[in-house]
Amino acid sequence: MAKRGGFSGGMPGNMNNLMKQAQRMQRQMEENQKEMETKEFTAAAGGGAVEVTVTGKKEIVKVKLSAEVVDPEDIEMLEDLIVAATNEALRQAEEANAEVMNKMTGGLGLGGGLPF
Q1: Could you say which residues form the signal peptide (predicted)?
Q2: How far apart are alpha carbons 15 and 20 in whole angstroms?
Q3: Which residues make beta-bridge pairs with 64?
Q4: At what angle do helices 75-105 and 11-38 cross, to 10 degrees?
Q5: Each residue of 67-83: pLDDT tens digit?
Q6: DSSP label at 39?
Q7: Which residues contact 49 (CB under 8 A, 6 or more apart)?
């Protein structure tokens, strides 16, 4: 006679182990997310004339300009350098995030990034 609503062959034990592993992975992901949020990534443009620092939360926390790049006659160049440095710093943050996710998922491609 078949059991009602159950699995044969010891599946409930395996399901419990799977749930524990999922919970452990979720805790690790939350810890890694908190750690990523505190990290900072700095990138430069224009030979170091512009530096931008962002956090793992993708927030700009610092912009450093050298005096020689501040030319009232060429504001566009300064704007371009700021954009370039910011995009590079954000790329670094995203790359670090992807590395953390790869470690967590074992390279299975299960995650597209941390939700921030």
Answers
A1: none
A2: 9
A3: 51
A4: 160
A5: 999 999 999 999 999 99
A6: -
A7: 65, 66, 68, 69, 81
